[in-house]
Amino acid sequence: MRIVISSAGRRVYLVQWFREALYEAGIVGEVIVIEHDPNAATAAAADSYRPIPAFTSPDYAPAMLDIIDELRPELFLSLNDHELTTLSEGLADELRARGVVTPVLEQQSHRAVADKLMMSQVLQNAGICTPRPVLLPDVAAVHDLISSTNNIIVKARWGSGSSGLRRFPSHEARRRVEGRYQNATDAEALGFDDIIVQPDVGGVEYGLDVITAVRGGPVEGVLARQKLGMRHGETSNAKTVKNTPFIGLAAALNAALGIRGSVDVDVLVADDDVPYVIDVNPRFGGGYPFVHVAGADVPHFYLASTLGFTPRPDWDQYRIGCIGSKHEGIIGFDAADTPAAQPANRRQPLTSSIQKRVGI
Questions:
Q1: Which residue among 99, 134, 166, 343 has the highest number of C-beta atoms inside a 10 angstrom radius?
Q2: What confidence category does residue 171 fall into, taking pLDDT thresholds of 50, 70 and 90?
Q3: Domain 1-102+328-360 adopts which CATH fold?
Q4: To the nearest 10°, the Cα dihedral for 301, 307, 308, 312?
């Protein structure tokens, strides 16, 4: 079995866990990384590596299809929000037409989570609580929002990884927003449509993985953790918690979006115990490792779902109250243009091992 992971970046742990899942299931296979950056850590950690143009390049789609035609993988995953947008616009269907299982949302559903303004509308229509956003150019709505709540969040409409997200008390938000209106150049004002303002509902923040079969279907698993720390827009510390309060929310999200595989969901639970969805990322998220080291095994479920065998009954079970903390790691490898690294699609790590359950 061949598994291709695109835009894997630094997520060496996910490459290792898919390799481990193959080994433990007794499946002969390999995990191949496709990366624009030849120096990405996962390019060395994978069984092999293929370079590809940036997904913003006109050469990206033809190169992707050439790689898929060469490798003929059973399963393809992307870990980049913006690449997923490109895939959802028809390229994922071309991969599926080649027989490759590609857990990417349909175009309309993907747009609904990529565009934070549209996401709010779709979720509200589905009866899912979410903070109401307004666009920065809507001066009257912004002032009404600032006047009616204590704290404000300003963030990018098309953001990824908490890009551009800032929290302000209302009085400071009013001063900053008014200053932005008054001092913006014409070019800056044109970009106001890409900025949303919404109330900060407060409460405790949780991360969820909502899991369905890789081709879609009912919710098969819900994995939950309380966020204890953030770094560079990604969860750095978390504690696993019971999934019970989020089961209904997961089903509602699946009904609204038609999930395929896994989506990462950020939720705020305020004093009224109502979960407010603040973000949806249709991929493995940065919070998944915390439930994996506590016992869950979504890579195993992905293999079973792709190949059609029954997964272990405990694949979605994890220890409650397990605290995880990410830390720095390093992998050394030969440069792609040195003789030791030839052929170029095979990187040679200087140190490598499959780590089991004890952390990353």
A1: 134
A2: confident
A3: Rossmann fold (3.40.50)
A4: -30
> Using alpha carbons only, what angle is made at residue 4 by residues 333 and 264, rounded to the nearest 5 degrees?
100
Top-tier CATH class for 132-199: alpha beta
Beta-carbon contacts of residue 43 (< 8 Å; ≥ 6 apart): 33, 35, 37, 49, 333, 347
| Alpha carbon distance 126, 129 (integer Å) | 9
Are 14 and 297 contacting, i.e. CB atoms less than 8 angstroms apart?
no
Q: Return d(Cα 118, Cα 196) in angstroms, integer.
A: 11
Instruction: Look up residue 52 and give its amino acid.
Output: I
Quick check: 230 pLDDT over 90?
no
Cα distance between residue 48 and residue 258, in whole Å: 32
Give 351's pLDDT tier (boundaries 50, 70, 90): very low
Q: How confident is the model at residue 349 (pLDDT cuts 50, 70, 90)?
A: low
CB 165 within 8 Å of CB 230: no
Quote the CA–CA distance of 94 and 99 in Å, as a whole number. 9
pLDDT for residue 323 = 96
Note the CATH architecture for domain 203-326: 2-Layer Sandwich (3.30)
Burial class (CB in 10 A: 0-12, 13-18, 19+), 184: middle
- End-to-end C-alpha distance for the chain, whole angstroms: 25
Distances 53 to 37, 58, 310 between C-alpha atoms, Å: 9, 9, 37
Delimit the domains of the chain by residue range. 1-102+328-360, 132-199, 203-326
* Distance of alpha carbon 245 from alpha carbon 122, whole angstroms: 21
- 2 close to 74: Cβ distance less than 8 angstroms: yes
pLDDT at residue 247, as a whole number: 97
For range 17-36, the mean pLDDT: 97
Q: What are phi and psi of 56, to 5 degrees?
A: -85, -10
